[in-house]
Amino acid sequence: MAGVAGFGALEECLESPNQITLNHRLESVKILPPPPEGTEAELWGYVTAQGVSLAEINEPFRQRIFCMAVTSADNLDQGRPSSWSGELDQLAAGVDSNRDIRRLFVVSAGNCDLEVRDKYPNAQLSSSVQDPAQAWNVLTVGAYTELDTLTDPSIVNCRVLAPKQGLSPFTSTSVNWDDQWPIKPDIVLEGGNLVVDETGAALECEDLSILSTSHRFHDYGYFSFINETSAATAQAAWCAAQILAEYPDFWPETIRALMVHSTRWPEQLKAQFMKEDTKTAYKRLLRICGYGVPDLKRAL
Questions:
Q1: Which residues of 207-217 are buried (b: 16+ CB within 10 A; e: fewer)?
Q2: Nearest 5 degrees, angle CA 245-CA 137-CA 238?
Q3: At residue 100, does pLDDT exceed 80?
Q4: Which residues contact 178 (CB under 8 A, 6 or more apart)?
Q5: H or E segment and range at residue 288
Q6: Percent of the chain's residues with pLDDT above 90
Q7: Is 90 exceeded by the pLDDT of residue 51?
C-alpha cells in the first residue's frame, strides 16, 4: 500500500525518462497489535482515534489524508452505524475535540470472501461493504478492474474472470442494504482481477495485479504486487494527496467532493449491471460501484 500511496502508478514512474517529484510524504501508525493479541470490537474506534491523535501530536501543523484498509469481515452491520464507523464520522467532521479539525478518511470497502470469488459477480453483489466503511463522512473505496491480459507463459488453460472495465472480483457492495443507509462505495479504482483454472478455482496472478514496491526487498527484490480493495484505497489516497498538494487551502470535504464529482462510470461497468435505463437501475448501479472511477485531471 505504501508503494501505491507514495508513487501512484509505479509502472508510469518506471517508464518515464523524467525525474519523479513527490509532493507528499507518508506516515504510518499501527492500530493492530501483533498476533496472537487482539482488540475488543468495542475499542476499535477508540484505538483508531488514538492513532489519529498520535500522528497529529507528533506533527500538529502537517496536513493529512488518512488511508485505512483495515475492516471487519463479520458483515453484520449491513450499513447500520457501529461504534467504529461512528468514531470515524466524528473524526472526519471534527467534532471529537474543541479544535474543530476536519479530516479526510479514505477507507476500503472490504473484500469479497475468498472462498466464493469464483461465483462472479453474484458473490460480490451479496458481499456487504464492511465495518467501518459504512461511515457517512468517509470516502469509501471499492474496486473495478482494467486488467484482462495474460502474458505469463506459465499460465495455461485459464480464463480471466472479470471483463475489462468490469467490477473487480475482490470487491464488496451495498446492494443488500436498506435505503436509509449511505451509498457505498463512493468510488471505485483498480483492484485487480483473477484467473479461473480448469478446476474452476479463482486464482491470483501477477499479470492481473498492480505493481508496487516490496517491503522485503532484501529477500524478494525491489518490486511486488498488490490487489483487492487495499490497492484501490491506496490509489485513492494518492489521488487525494495530489489534489491537496495543488490546493493546500481546500477543506478535506472539498477534496472528497472533487474526487467524487470527477467520476464517470466506464461503459462496460454500466453494461454489466444496467439492463434498462431506469431510476431503479441507476440506484442499483450506485450501490455496486458508487459514482464510478475518479479522473485526477478532471478533479484538478
A1: bbbbbbbeeee
A2: 30
A3: no
A4: 78, 79
A5: helix 279-289
A6: 89
A7: yes
How far, in Å, CA of 183 to CA of 289, rounded?
9
**Angle (nearest 5°) at CA 150 between 149 and 153:** 160
Q: Is 12 exposed, middle or buried (0-12, 13-18, 19+ CB in 10 A)?
A: exposed
Nine-digit cell at 155?
499460465
Please tell me the distance from the alpha carbon of residue 240 to that of residue 254, in angstroms, as a whole number.
Answer: 10
Rounded distance between C-alpha atoms, residue 35 and residue 38, angstroms: 7
Residue 21, pLDDT score:
92
Distance CA 257, CA 252 (A): 9
* 2-29 tens-digit pLDDT: 999 999 999 999 999 999 999 999 999 9
What is the C-alpha separation between 161 and 211, in angstroms, rounded?
A: 20
d(CA 89, CA 164): 34
Cell of 255: 477534496
| Confidence at residue 99, expressed as pLDDT on a 0 to 100 scale | 67
Pairing of strands 187-190, 139-145: parallel
| Cα 258 from Cα 64, distance rounded (Å) | 17
Note the pLDDT tens digit of each residue in 221-268. Answer: 999 999 999 999 999 999 999 999 999 999 999 999 999 999 999 999
Distance CA 143, CA 191 (A): 5
Cis amide leading into 132 (omega within 30): yes
Q: Which parts of 73-118 are beta strand (E)?
A: 104-108
pTM for the whole thing?
Answer: 0.96
Q: Apex CA 78: angle with CA 76 and CA 81, to 5°?
A: 90
**For the segment 117-135, what is each residue's pLDDT rounded down to a tens digit?**
999 999 999 999 999 999 9
